[in-house]
Specification:
The complex is a heterodimer of chains A (134) and B (708).
Chain A lengths: L7 E4 L3 H14 L5 E4 L2 H10 L10 E4 L8 H11 L8 E6 L4 H9 L3 E6 L4 H11 L1
Parallel strand pairs in A: 1-2, 1-3, 3-4, 4-5
Helix pairs in contact in A: 1-5, 2-3
Chain B lengths: L1 H32 L4 H29 L3 H16 L3 E7 L9 E9 L15 E2 L6 H5 L5 E4 L8 H8 L4 E9 L2 E10 L8 H33 L3 E5 L5 E4 L1 H7 L3 H4 L4 H4 L7 H12 L4 E8 L5 E13 L2 E10 L1 H23 L3 E6 L2 E5 L1 H7 L3 H4 L13 H10 L5 E6 L5 E13 L2 E10 L1 H57 L4 H33 L6 E4 H11 L1 H7 L2 E5 L5 E4 L1 H17 L8 E8 L5 E7 L6 H4 L20 H11 L3 E7 L3 E7 L9
The chains are: A alpha/beta (134), B alpha+beta (708).
């Protein structure tokens, strides 16, 4: 499968969201490369492993908040430590079903978060986010 | 020199009258020349004149005695004696007051003149005439001896002879006057007609008169001294008859009232009394007692001429005054003294009032020994004033605090502090003490204020109690609020998620091309539906717990529940060869809802088994005990994987949070039991170390104020 478009990472423990989000992103035909992680720890391990290989690292991370083990907030804490060693610019979107204002405020206050997106995410929203970032 | 010119003038006058004098002298001389009848004549003259002389002397002395005008009496006496002795002059000289650096001198005071000789009373030479000019009379007179001399026989050219000759004196006789044994002056008699020889009788009569004058002058001096004393003394003196009538008053008495002596004399004390202020009945009694010889002292309200009223102290004694038995009253104004006394009393009174009005007790003490106190201290302690005075103030404090209080007294501590007081009846009360050292009559004493603070203590306790309640209510509210927030979080994250998924799946289903795809999506839809339902059920459980705080409690035995739970998980325990033990001996029983305790113990044991360390045999221990607050505690210890609390502390009891990539993790157990424990007013906490183990601690009664 030939590489096409940016690399996108979905970090979410919700397998149905992983499925629907992948399908939706693929339907935009912006990219074919979608990495799937079921919790923050898996995503962090991937980042650490490929830290010196920008071609493998994702351009976009869609990060869920509520996950077992390492949740979205904990991922961001660790990401902050990794960030300086990553040469590639990565856009992180927080993606959550929470409409709790405290979550939204907290996300917006984090400098590594580009935006806070409420689930479910439509095709149009993905298009907008990916174009915006590009 | 003025003296010289005056003498010159006088000499002329003398010359004018000389003829007449000479004539008289000649006539007498002639008679004297008849030697035959001389002795008889002399005898007759002498005997006749002797009678006359003694008679005259008695007359002159009588003058001195009865005449209050001593000067007039002396003048009259000199005249009578002068006439009787047929001398030309009779006079009196007084020594001038001795002044340092000047010669003792004399001045003529009185002179009688026969009319034949020139009067010398106005002769300025006879004023302040030094004794040196009239030597040698001083030698005689100052020795209390008479001096008589025939001028012609005197030392020629002496100043004295010259003076005598200038006055035509042929013979003179001088007698000294001694007052109080002091040489005071002299009286003298001049004979200008012939060279008279003084007879024994003449000499003794005149000596007698000089003594009488001395006595009169002495009396005069004494009276004058007395008068001066009477008038200069700084007290008012009233001489009264026994009926009270004023006979005499001194100057000060006049000044005191503003009346003249004349205005007062003849009146009675009523005249000087302030209207209605004196009890005259009482005063009359005092006067009667004084008349009987008992000295009386009393106060008397006087009224001045100006109308001003004042208070005086009066002392009345019976005594003699110029020959009469009188009442002698002395008085002094005590208005000012009384005013300051009154001011002092007023100030003391005000101090008393202040002390009495104070709501606490006040005591003055010296190292604990009570010197004075107010009524407040009596009321506070139950002792009477008399009982408190002289008492050791420490007796008012409970025995165990006396050393503490004494320390404060000794160190002069001046801030309030609380102790426990001891009343007379033995009852105790909360007491606030505040002492202060003050200088008093050259030593340091201590004023101590006692304040009954039982009410305040009670109020304080009430406030503390209320505050504790408030804190507990606040805590309860805070916990409820936290639970609400948590609930929002659960709904927000856990419930919206699957519903969102369903919507997404439905939109894919609508645009699905193949049957396979549609089937797959339907399966996913079903899965999401089930997840949603599970979530709703779990939420329902939580809500049920939260709403069922009044769920019935039973008396449960930890031991029984533990065995029940243990048997439920027996298969796992056996499989893992886990060592599961328990010790509930220190707190065997708990009042708790059965299903909750079962849920708690089951979850804790399940977790301990589930997250065991693969590298060692599980060792799990449950114990119960009472903490220092009497709260029942349950501890569940394991030697399992442990949790990195630095990272996961805030996630431990949250829904759907797991800390291990463990297939059985659902993240529901701890969340559920925490809700149950919270609902019953308890608390669950965790301590853990990764790869060492975890201990859960449950305080079942943490938020119960009654300790049940």
């Amino acid at each position: 499968m030939a590489r096409k478009g940016p690399i996108i990472a979905l970090v979410d423990d919700d397998k149905i969201f992983q499925l629907t989000a992948s399908k939706t992103i693929k339907s935009t035909e912006i990219t074919e490369t979608i990495l799937q992680f079921l919790n923050g720890e898996e995503a962090l391990q991937f980042l650490r492993k490929n830290i010196s290989d920008p071609a493998t690292l994702p351009d976009y991370i869609f990060l869920d908040i509520n996950m077992p083990y390492i949740d979205g907030w904990m991922f961001l804490e660790d990401y902050q430590d990794l960030k300086s060693k990553i040469t590639k610019p990565i856009s992180i979107y927080m993606v959550s079903s929470s409409i709790d204002p405290r979550d939204i405020e907290r996300a917006k206050a984090n400098q590594n978060i580009k935006d806070y997106v409420i689930k479910p995410v439509t095709r149009e929203k993905f298009l907008e986010l990916l174009k915006q970032a590009a | 020199m003025p003296g010289k010119s005056l003498r010159g003038k006088r000499s002329k006058k003398t010359a004018v009258t000389k003829k007449a004098v000479t004539t008289t002298v000649k006539k007498i001389k002639r008679t004297e020349n008849g030697e035959a009848d001389k002795s008889l004549k002399n005898y007759r003259f002498e005997s006749k004149s002797n009678d006359l002389l003694f008679h005259t002397l008695s007359q002159a002395i009588r003058e001195l005695l009865i005449n209050s005008d001593t000067a007039g009496a002396i003048a009259k006496g000199l005249k009578l004696l002068g006439q009787a002795t047929e001398v030309d002059r009779a006079y009196l000289f007084e020594n001038d007051a001795a002044q340092p650096g000047t010669l003792l001198s004399i001045s003529q005071r009185y002179e009688w003149n026969s009319g034949t000789a020139l009067p010398q009373i106005d002769n300025p030479e006879l004023q302040n005439l030094p004794y040196t000019e009239v030597a040698p009379i001083y030698d005689y007179l100052s020795e209390n001896k008479p001096y008589y001399q025939i001028v012609r026989k005197m030392e020629a050219g002496s100043s004295f002879r010259r003076i005598l000759e200038a006055e035509d004196i042929q013979s003179l006789l001088l007698f000294p006057i001694f007052l109080e044994n002091q040489f005071w002056g002299f009286i003298g008699f001049d004979e200008c007609k012939f060279e008279r020889k003084w007879t024994e009788v003449e000499i003794s009569v005149l000596r007698g008169y000089s003594a009488a004058i001395a006595a009169a002058l002495e009396r005069l001096n004494r009276e004058k001294s007395y008068k001066d004393l009477f008038d200069t003394v700084g007290e008012a003196i009233y001489i009264q008859k026994f009926d009270g009538t004023f006979v005499d008053v001194n100057k000060y008495a006049c000044t005191m009232y503003g009346y003249t002596k004349e205005e007062i004399i003849g009146r009675t004390p009523l005249f000087l009394s302030a209207d209605g202020k004196n009890d005259f009945e009482q005063i009359v009694k005092h006067i009667e007692a004084a008349v009987h010889g008992v000295t009386q002292q009393f106060e008397f309200w006087g009224k001045k001429k100006t109308g001003e009223v004042f208070l005086k102290d009066v002392r009345v004694t019976k005594g003699f005054y110029f020959g009469h038995e009188r009442l002698i009253a002395t008085a002094w104004d005590i208005t000012e003294r009384r005013k300051s006394e009154q001011a002092l009393r007023d100030s003391e009174q005000r101090f008393r009032v202040l002390q009495e009005a104070s709501f606490g007790g006040i005591g003055l003490h010296d190292k604990g020994k009570v010197l004075d106190c107010n009524q407040g201290l009596c009321e506070l302690t139950g002792y009477s004033y008399q009982e408190l005075i002289g008492k050791n103030g420490l007796d008012l404090i409970v025995p165990e605090l006396r050393d503490f209080v004494m320390e404060k007294i000794v160190s002069g501590y001046d801030k309030p502090y609380d102790v426990e007081g001891l009343r007379k009846d033995g009852s105790k009360y909360f007491l606030e003490i505040k002492g202060k050292n003050i200088p008093f009559e050259n030593r340091i004493i201590r004023v101590t204020e006692f304040r009954d603070i039982t009410e305040r203590k009670r109020a304080e306790e009430k406030i503390i109690e209320q505050n504790t309640k408030l804190v507990s209510v606040t805590e309860e509210l805070r916990r409820k609020n936290n639970q609400l927030e948590e609930f929002t979080q659960i709904v927000s994250h856990n419930l919206r998620s699957p519903v969102g998924n369903i919507l997404s799946l439905l939109s894919f289903f609508e645009s699905a091309d193949s049957e396979d795809e549609k089937n797959e999506l339907l399966n996913l839809l079903r899965e999401s539906g089930i997840t949603t339902l599970t979530m709703l059920n779990e939420l329902n459980d939580v809500l049920k717990i939260k709403q069922s705080q009044n769920i019935e409690k039973q008396e449960l035995k930890f031991d029984n529940m533990f065995h029940q739970v243990r048997s439920m998980l027996n298969a796992r325990i056996t499989e893992l060869s886990a060592n599961v033990s328990a010790d509930f001996s220190r707190a065997p029983i708990l009042q708790y809802p059965t299903i909750y305790l079962e849920s708690i113990m089951l979850n804790l044991l399940d977790n301990a088994l589930k997250y065991h360390s693969p590298s060692r045999k599980p060792d799990i221990k449950f114990i119960s005990y009472k903490d220092h607050n009497g709260h029942t505690i349950l501890e569940a210890q394991d030697n399992g994987l442990g949790i990195n609390l630095e990272r996961y502390q805030h996630h431990v009891f949250k829904l759907r949070k797991t800390f291990h990539r463990h297939p059985e993790s659902r993240g529901i157990g701890l969340f559920m039991i925490k809700n149950q424990i919270d609902a019953m007013g308890g608390e669950i906490s965790i301590s853990s170390e990764e790869n060492k183990g975890t201990t859960f601690l449950i305080n079942f009664n943490k938020h119960h104020t009654d300790g049940s």
